[in-house]
Amino acid sequence: MKKLTLIIASLCIVFACKTEKKEEAKVTTPVEVAKIAPVSDDMMESAVIYEANIRQYSKEGTFDQFTKDIPQLKELGVKIIWLMPIFPISETKRKARGDKFASEFPEEERKKYLGSYYAVTDFTKINPEFGTIEDFRKLVKTAHENDMYVILDWVPNHTGWDHTWLTSNPEFYTKNAKGEITDPLNADGTPVGWADVADLNYDNKELRKAMVKDMQHWITEENVDGFRCDVAGSVPTDFWQEAIPQLRAKKDIFMLAEAWEPELLKEGLFDMAYGWDRHHTMNHIAKDGGPKAWNENYAKDTARYEKDDILMTFVTNHDENSWNGTIEERMGDAWEVMTALSYVAPGMPLIYSGQEYGMKHRLKFFEKDEIPHEKGKEWEVLQKLGKLKSTNKALHGGKNGAYYNLESSNNRILKFSREKEGDKVLFVANLSDGVAKTWIKEGEYLDYMNNAKVKIDSINPPITLKPWEYKILIKE
Q: Under CATH, what is the fold of the domain 41-402?
């Protein structure tokens, strides 16, 4: 009997040890957190935002390859890294090219079609195409160590057709008269053209809770610093009024709306919206010349936005590059003056992956592609502009931005000054394809981009600017 008891006791000990080891294996390594100051209004004043297209950033298309280059983004004054969607992509109705789905092609060819980043199957998982969750954590940690914040591209308006909600919670989705889940529709009921995704219905309160929970996961578990919200204006504003305070309760975060609607910037909702009209205006000026359209748009923005609203200013982004053309295609010889204008005007300038290397091609959207990595004139220009943006208060563009004063303009010349706490910058640009002349107020200036001293007095003739030439003059 004693022997039997000993045998049973021994077996229990062995079983307990095995169980203990099994339980230990389930324990995950805690996220290593690098220290960085909380997101603040002061940070936003001088920030440059960088849109990272992980798939196309390198030959490998991985988090690790991008992470290696994070330290050098500091040279460009980057303060916020916006990662295009990092989530798994649906196989069902996966986009290939044009209006065609990957399933319409032979199996071997089908493999090259990777689908749209915006057709998400799970908001809490990592796209294996880019690496692992550990690779992602390393990216965030490296960014924080370099004093940069990381925001995720969030897709609240729709999901891919493989998302688990389609089977577990079909009530989360918009349905037609037949009770079928639909892709996003226009107000008149016609398709928007996004057949690879299923439209979410925000009349459902449980959907709202689930969406907030998934967003909070990335803040509390992965230490991200905010979100860029895709087509934010297509989601009811009252959802954002519910969601954003809950997100901010977890951590100080930065919120960017892919939208122009002023109401999304009110009452502590989004920190920044897209300056879409400004962007389209710059495209227009590069084609037709003259500052009139800029002045009209700036006056319109001043009237519809509040003083502490921030707009993102840009000459390109993932949509513009892939669908509407490269900077070279849209802006030609005006590329540099428009880039400078996006920095010296109020707001926060954007750099899109490849822009810093003078990318001359449209990136494929649903297939693998790659940006160039040879530094040239574009890197030098962005480096200089980034340094000025981060060091000169006259270019503050956040919630307490520097004063903007339109000094003069005609059919070719745009001239405005900005000033804050003793810093003053004068921007003078020839926005035409012809030679133009203008006068500058008396004084001593630093011609910033050329690093040259300039003295203007009453006997000096007007300055002559070549087509699309500009000067950033710092009052000394």
A: TIM Barrel (3.20.20)
Residue boundaries of the structural domains of the chain: 41-402, 407-475
Query: How many beta carbons lie within 10 A of that of residue 404, not counting itself?
Result: 17
Chain length of the chain: 476
Instruction: Give the tokens for residue 214.
Output: 């998934």
Q: What is the pLDDT along the chain (476 residues), one digit of tens a residue?
A: 333 343 334 444 433 443 333 333 434 455 667 789 999 999 999 999 999 999 999 999 999 999 999 999 999 999 999 999 999 999 999 999 888 999 999 999 999 999 999 999 999 999 999 999 999 999 999 999 999 999 999 999 999 999 999 999 999 999 998 999 999 999 888 999 999 999 999 999 999 999 999 999 999 999 999 999 999 999 999 999 999 999 999 999 999 999 999 999 998 999 999 999 999 999 999 999 999 999 999 999 999 999 999 999 999 999 999 999 999 999 999 999 999 999 999 999 999 999 999 999 999 999 999 999 999 999 999 999 999 999 999 999 999 999 999 998 889 999 999 999 999 999 999 999 999 999 998 899 999 999 999 999 877 778 999 999 999 999 88
Q: What residue type is assigned to position 374 of the chain? A: E
Distance of CA 355 to the CA centre of its chain: 13
Query: What is the C-alpha separation between 358 and 191, in angstroms, rounded?
Result: 36
- Domain at 407-475, CATH from 3.40.630.10, 2.20.130.10, 2.60.40.1180, 3.90.230.10: 2.60.40.1180
Which amino acid, 26? K
CA-nearest of 59, 61, 111 to 83 is 61
